[in-house]
Each structure stands twice: as C-alpha cells, then as structure tokens.
Amino acid sequence: MTPTTAKPPVLDVDALLADPHTRIVVCCGSGGVGKTTTAAALGLRAAEAGRRTVVLTIDPARRLAQSLGLTELDNTPRRVSDVDGEDAVKGELHAMMLDMKRTFDEVVLAHSDGKKAEEIFANPFYQAMSSTFSGTQEYMAMEKLGQLREANEWDLIIVDTPPSRSALDFLDAPQHLAKFLDGRMLRILLAPARVGGRGVFRIATGALSFFSRAMSKILGGELLGELSTFVSALDSMFGGFRQRADETYRLLQTPGTAFLVVAAPQPDAVREAAYFADRLVEENMPLAGLVLNRVDQVAAGDLTAEQAIAAAQQLEAAGESPTTAEVLRVHADLVALVNAQSRVAERFTASHPNVPVATVRTQPEDVHDLAGLRRVGAALAGE
Question: For residue 232, what pLDDT band results from cuts at 50, 70 and 90?
Fold first, then answer.
C-alpha cells in the first residue's frame, strides 16, 4: 500500500479559497467523478470562511440546486440562506445555472436597440443558434463568466463545467467564434447584406449572383433572405462577441484564476485528468491542483490482503468462526481495491509530480444537503 513514487505536494484548499487574489476557481474533469459536489463544497467552505461567493454550473443536471437546499437554479444567482460561520467572518453563497439562450438574449439586448433586438429574436436562425447551435453553450459560459467578473460583486466565482472533454470547450470558444466569423460562407452571406439586404440576392451578375442562385435552389429564396437578415443584424455585434470572449480567455490565464482538475481513482478518469492538466499547461492556464475524489481506505492498514486471506483459509479449514473468515475476505478485497486505486493515482502523479493533490475519501452516503457538502469541504481541506 506504500506508493512507489514520491508523494506529490499537498493542495492547501483553505489557503487557495482564502487568498483574496483568487477570484475564479474552475472545476473541470470527466463525468461521474463528483465535480459538481466538489464545486458546491468549495463554494460553501469559501462562504463560511467569509468570502462572498457564487457558484456557476454549466452542467444541466440539477444536483447543485438539490445539494444546496434550493428547489431550482436559473440564470440569476440565488442566495443560499443557511450559511454558517462566525459573525465576524460570515460570507455569502449564491448559486446559478447557465441558461445559454437567456444569456444570448441578454447580450443582444445589451448591444442593440429595441427594434433590432426584436428582429433578431424573431429570426428563426437566431432561435436555432441560441438554443441548439454547437458551441453556443461554451461561448455563453464565457459571456456569463465575464459578466460575473465585470460586475465585481463577488469575492470568488466558482465554475462547475460539463463532463468529459467538453469541460474545456469553453476555452476554445473565442477561436471557434473567430473561425465562424472569418469563414468564407459567412463572408459571402454578409457581403450582400451589407450593401442592400435581400434585394442584392436578385443581382444577376458576377460570382455573388451565381452563389445566390445556387443557394436559393438549396434553401429557397425566403429562407436565404432570413439567413441574410440574421447575419446582417448580428454583424454589428460580432466584433464585441470576439472581444469579450478574448478578454475572458485572458482573464482565465491570470494568477487570480485557479483550475482544479477533479478525478476519481479510476483509469479513464485519471487519463482524462492528465489530458486536462496537459491542456491547461499548453494554454498557460493556472493549474492549482488535482482533487482525487472518492478514494477508499482501510482501517487495519498493517494487515495485508495476503495475510487476511491466509487467516480466513485457516479458520475455514478448522471449521471455526465463519463470520470472522468472511470479514477477513472482505478486508482482503478492500485492500486490493485500495492498492489498485493507489496505482491508478500514481499514473497521474508520476507524469505530473509538481501538481498538488487533495484527496477526498469515499463518503459513507450520497451528498444531498449542506451538511454533506461541509463534510466534503472538510475532507478537501485535509481535516
């Protein structure tokens, strides 16, 4: 059970949360590793240490609301009332869940007059893009994070990201948006809109006319006109989209941001954690540490699996104490599991020896309330 590699540095969670220079903590990791619970526990611990904290979840699951004792979450921060702490240091905890369409609507309203906003909202292409377009959720996550930080109402913003590798897709949002804006198809559609709207599609000369006739056959004139109107309406906003996304991206690279990679001691989860860590280093994002969640332990650590099995076999051969023999076998299985988890964890620490690690032991029951979150928070802090 003793690791074969040097122990990694310990992640000081309390110091990270208490540091006034830490303004954003981003929790990323694969699905099913307790990432949402970790984000909520960090938020609660920070609030009870005296910081005004908001937890933003991009995960559409409702676990965060349930664990915080709220019936639901939406695009507006909701205060969690039952936050403890000494009177002198008691902070506040708020939570919210990203609504990408509502966030997109807010951006449109903020950067266009009422008439143009109504035209955009009524356009079928906008309705599709704001609800289902690939990458919209990640881009709007960047928008919402930027809004929260710009408002300067929070000491600490904790972001709970979607599962799997899409957890880092919001890092790519500015680049994806730039490719979309600079794409040949969009430029062709935007050019006629800039010089006359739908009427230009009736021009019968040049390459543009040829393109328009071809597109009209595919989409139909009315649909093509709606697409042109949509592109034209959003044209004045595209530069602002890219600028704000780039600003948020740079914000994520500052020392005031801390990324925590959350994993369970399972091969796939640790493999994903290594991917996240490498990607964060590539992007010059501040990697604060690894949270190794749901780690099992044994009470009688000096009793090896081999010794437990041998003792169980002796008892069974003598026909004595079958209950004790069964307990010994259960112990042997648990020791084997703990050893396997240790070997899996070492795959990460061996390739990332300087990344601090916080270990959270397996909880005796599912976390579904503030008391459970406090236990997780205490475990994160090494208590």
Answer: low
**Hey, which residues does 78 pair with through a beta bridge?**
95
Q: Helices then strands (H, E): number in the chain?
A: 15, 8
pLDDT at 164: 57
Collapsed DSSP state (helix, strand, coil) of residue 196: coil
Dist CA 57 CA 160 (whole Å): 5
For 33, list phi and psi in degrees, rounded to 5. -105, 5
Question: DSSP letters along 308-373, please?
Answer: HHHHHHHHHHHT--HHHHHHHHHHHHHHHHHHHHHHHHHHHHHH-TTS-EEEEEPPSS---SHHHH
Contact 201, 224 (CB under 8 A): yes
- At residue 73, the pLDDT reads 81
Gyration radius (Cα) of the chain, Å: 26
Alpha-helical regions (H) of 25-80: 35-48, 63-67
Output the pLDDT for position 61.
65
In whole angstroms, how far apart are CA 150 and each of 104, 145, 157? Answer: 17, 8, 11
Q: What span, in angstroms and rounded, lies between the C-alpha atoms of 145 and 17?
A: 18
pTM value? 0.82
Q: Report all structural domains of the chain as residue ranges with CATH numbers, in order of start.
A: 13-301+336-380 (3.40.50.300)
Quickly state the pLDDT bin for 383 (edges 50, 70, 90).
confident
pLDDT one-digit tens code per residue, 260-297: 999 999 999 999 899 999 989 988 999 999 999 999 88
CB 95 within 8 A of CB 58: no
% of the chain exceeding 70 in pLDDT: 75
**DSSP-based helix, strand, coil % in the chain, nearest 5:** 60, 10, 30
Alpha-carbon span 155 to 147, nearest angstrom: 14
